[in-house]
Specification:
Length: 640
């Protein structure tokens, strides 16, 4: 017996591996009126699918009250993929049967071996039902005309160890079928090899449901199937940056909701920087006490809540502790109060242009041996709080996964420190770029030892591309079995391909396509110029190399859209990120029309679905930016 939230009770038998849960929530209003109590005006238009071009065409309603389908209902079965986002990679059959659906009558049956997975499925079904209810316009209830069917969902998860653990090896595939049963139900079956595949199946099922504005009811595609749908790339992420501008928990939850709507699976938190340390470290609390701006920091309870919230929605949360650069907030106080010497250098010093990439400055002191146990304490905190793990390359063992940052080290900062210069001269390190790179590599090696120490086994680390990943030194300094490299270079840069040829695993965050904070001017210095804005079409057409590259052992794990936080806070986060990040999501799930040059102009085929998905996101509370005048949405193809 499993006691679920809201008093729902489910039975689970290990022998039969069968769990049956009926979820019931409060009924919707029975009247069909807008929020002011006035009845909705008669509809002037309905939409019919033009199967040849896959678009819904507007036709006038000649007799009030006898209109055909609303636009969203028409779109469900029009075109190859209807309103689905991202485009499935498997076999799609949308059928032609639309059945009225009662969003309050949702029940599911789970078959599998894991009680933990059963609990997650139960929570995911509640999220699914909430998404159905969000489709109903505020103040509107379903018209009584026509019998709405309840929905019965059968979720089957093949027995496999760790089917509720998300790693780069997790099978996220699923198959989904819907049928109109003879018993007054619409039956949906989802087959998957992991909880995450089953959750994705539920997301697709939710996208086979729409509000029929003309009929005043929800409808579901009741003879549809999506078979063998699975992602091309296993790492499909979004980076947000609460270190520059703190993001309240509600904003983080909302990003997870948006990611779940398009099957992204990694929320990358750039959690520390010179501007702020909004993470509560239990082992090194002085950093939080003095580095969290105005006390704004995530507690362990906040992190636990976010990690669970994300997992139910198919997302894992990846923390980044950036080092040795981008480290200032809290470190000056730690140097003063811990009695362990100077732990960071150049902190808050001016003129900043000589010491760092952006103000305020700060870099860790690599020659202070007391620094490294403190790093180990932070790594231990993050491993415990976030629980992100990865299988070791060539092994079934799992160990913590941590993003260790590692970008934009300013050699001038270290070269301004008498302590560092004396250490280099005493230990035979020349004061040249090569000497400072060797010092940087020594820092990284010692930091990795600390991560391994708290992990108990060799851990997996992610680093940004930098001087340390240059072709002439990368193999000397970074073990390809231990490090994954995140490339944040322009699309035309060839270094990532050469790193793949050397056998490294890569994550792409293409700077001139997937940096979503670009295009809003400049915030530092006296210049107002900045990087150009990247519209969703550019985001969409940014193709990646294939998963594997020859016999080198190199692998493209996937990519991340990045919304850096210098000019982004909780007020502006949604509109600057969405729906453009959804274009990244489809690229990573489907790789539509191939990779690289073959991806160009594929956005033209996705435009109608993108507009539908943006509307879906808004219905779910995501403040996604507008992409076209509303007239274009209601007149498909007329703005092409």
């Amino acid at each position: 017996m499993i006691k679920m939230a809201d008093g729902v009770t489910a039975k689970f038998s290990r022998t039969s591996a069968l769990l049956c849960v009926a979820i019931v929530v409060g009924s919707l209003p029975s009247s069909f009126a807008d929020s002011s109590g006035r009845r909705s005006p008669a509809k002037q238009w309905s939409w019919d699918c033009d199967a040849v071009i896959g678009q819904c065409r507007k036709v006038p309603v000649t007799t009030p009250g006898t209109g055909g389908l609303g636009l969203e209902a028409c779109r469900l079965t029009c075109g190859r993929a209807g309103a689905l986002w991202p485009m499935p990679t498997g076999t799609i059959s949308l059928g032609s049967l639309l059945s009225p659906l009662n969003p309050e009558g949702v029940a599911f049956t789970y078959t599998g071996q894991s009680e933990g997975t059963a609990r997650l499925i139960a929570e995911a079904v509640r999220v699914f039902q909430g998404n159905l209810r969000a489709l109903v316009p505020r103040g509107a209830g379903q018209r009584r005309a026509g019998a709405a069917r309840d929905l019965s969902i059968l979720v089957s998860v093949a027995a496999s160890p760790g089917d509720d653990l998300l790693t780069w090896d997790t099978d996220e595939g699923y198959s989904l079928r819907t049928t109109a049963g003879m018993d007054g139900f619409v039956d949906a079956s989802i087959n998957a090899s992991s909880f995450f595949g089953a959750r994705h199946g539920l997301e697709t099922l939710s996208q086979l449901v729409a509000w029929d504005d003309n009929g005043g009811r929800l409808v579901v595609a009741a003879d549809a199937s999506v078979l063998g749908d699975r992602p091309v790339y296993p790492h499909r992420g979004l980076l947000v940056d609460p270190a520059r501008n703190f993001l309240p928990m509600t904003d983080l939850y909302r990003q997870v909701d948006a990611m779940a709507s398009c099957k992204m699976n990694v929320l990358h938190l750039h959690l520390t920087d010179t501007q702020g340390f909004p993470y509560t470290s239990r082992r090194v609390p002085v950093l939080t006490d003095n580095g969290a701006l105005q006390g704004m920091a995530y507690s362990p309870a906040d992190i636990a809540s976010l990690v669970h919230y994300a997992k139910v929605r198919g997302v894992r949360v990846l923390p980044e502790f950036d080092a040795p650069a981008h480290a200032g907030a809290g470190w000056d106080a730690a140097s003063e109060r811990l009695g362990k010497g100077q732990l960071a250098v150049c902190v808050n010093q001016q003129p900043w242009r000589k010491l760092c990439i952006e103000p305020p400055c700060g870099q860790l002191n690599p020659v202070n041996p007391d620094l490294y146990p403190l790093l180990g304490g932070i790594y231990a905190d993050m491993a415990e709080d976030f629980g992100a793990v990865e299988r070791l390359r060539g092994s079934n063992l799992t160990a913590p996964l941590l993003h260790m940052g590692g970008d934009e080290v300013h050699l001038g900062c270290w070269n301004s420190s008498a302590e560092i210069i004396d250490w280099m001269e005493s230990n035979g390190y020349p004061r040249t770029k090569e000497g400072f790179l060797a010092l940087w590599a020594e820092f990284q090696a010692r930091a990795l030892v600390e991560l391994d120490r708290v992990s108990g086994v060799p851990a997996t680390a992610i680093l940004w591309t930098s001087d340390l990943t240059s072709l002439d030194v990368v193999e000397d300094y970074l073990d390809k079995s231990r490090y994954v490299i995140q490339a944040w270079m322009p699309a035309a840069e060839t270094l990532p391909l050469k790193l793949l040829d050397k056998g490294y695993r890569l994550i792409f965050s293409t700077k001139d396509a997937w940096y979503l904070d670009h295009g809003y001017g400049n915030w530092k210095g006296s210049s107002i110029s900045g990087y150009p804005f990247h519209p969703w079409q550019v985001v969409y057409d940014n193709g990646l190399p294939p998963r594997t590259r020859g016999g080198s052992g190199g692998e493209v794990l996937g990519g991340e859209a990045a919304t850096w936080g210098e000019m982004v806070d909780g007020v502006t986060l949604d509109a600057k990120t969405w729906p453009r990040a959804a274009a990244t999501a489809e690229r990573l799930w489907s790789d539509p029309r191939g990779s690289g040059r073959r991806a160009k102009s594929s956005w033209l085929w996705a435009r109608t679905r993108m507009m539908s998905h943006r509307e879906r996101m808004v219905s779910r509370g995501i403040r996604a930016d507008a992409l076209q005048p509303k007239w274009c949405y209601y007149n498909e193809g007329e703005c092409a």
